[in-house]
Amino acid sequence: MKSSGPMGLTLAQRCAAYTALIALSVLPLLPLVWMLSSSLKTDSQIFPPEGQSAAAVTLVRLLPRPIHWSNYPQALHMIPLLVYLKNTLFLCLVTVLGAVFSSAIVAYGFARIEFKGKQPLFLLMIATMVLPGQVTMIPVFALFRWLGWYGTYLPLTVPAFFGSPFYIFLLTQFYRTLPEELSEAARVDGASEWRIFWQIILPLSRSALATCALFQFLGTWNDFFGPLLYLNDASRYTLAYGLQQFLSIHGGQWAQLMAAATLFTLPVIVLFFFAQRTFIQGIATTGVKS
């Protein structure tokens, strides 16, 4: 007996598709599983004894026996992870608000307002995405140092308030998919461009804005290079930079390092599971429209 799913696939085809997807996901998940497993072991359990192959020992000892939950509180006491978490969340909040709001305003101008030179400016803005960050690293660092911002959070937060080319492009394409009649009706009623943007366009753009916010949050959360360049005070370190400091200070204590890395990764995984539907919807609805 055959049954068809919502996409017209039979039960056997769906089972085969799910089996293939699960099999393909095993390899990318192995580092995460190994990290979680190692965070609950001792150092002697993580590394194989001399004379035994690492692969054989890993297969036998993938599940920790016994489970050492004490690695997590030890990791929290070895470096101030809670302080690093507070710093990271602060940067994430500020950069998400700045990048999403500023990019939304610029994108609205490119998508809905006609002005001279709009197309060349839009192409120039897109062209900046091709420029690697390493090319501008030295002049930008010199500029921030001249401004007296070195050692503060300003180099890590202020640029977010000037828009991100990728988010501007993403939101511009999304705005172009919205019916122009909505804006025209509001203009007939005497609404200003700012009111149209704030009360009509933004409420309809929640999925696209959430996608940009998620991208920015992940970028700030995982940012290692920025804090490495501009922060010189240990009380201001972020989680990504703090893990590197953990490695340099406690490099031989791998179980505690894996516990700290698990704590660093867990919030991102939880966030993605809660936001994945909005994220996928935002990506799917930002199609290209000329």
Shape: globular
Succession of helices and strands = HHHHHHHHHHHHHHH
From the 3D coordinates, which CATH architecture of the largest domain would you assign? Orthogonal Bundle
Whole-number mean pLDDT: 84
How far apart the termini lie comes to 47 Å
Radius of gyration: 24 Å
CATH fold topology of the largest domain: MetI-like fold
Binned, the helix content reads over 70%
State the domain count.
Answer: 2
List low-confidence stretches.
none
- Structural class by SSE content: mainly alpha
The largest sheet is: none
* Strand residues, percent: under 5%
Quickly name the level 1 CATH class of the largest domain.
Answer: Mainly Alpha
Discrete helix count: 15
Describe the oligomeric state of these chains in a short phrase.
single chain
How many strand segments?
0
By CATH's scheme, which homologous superfamily of the largest domain applies?
MetI-like
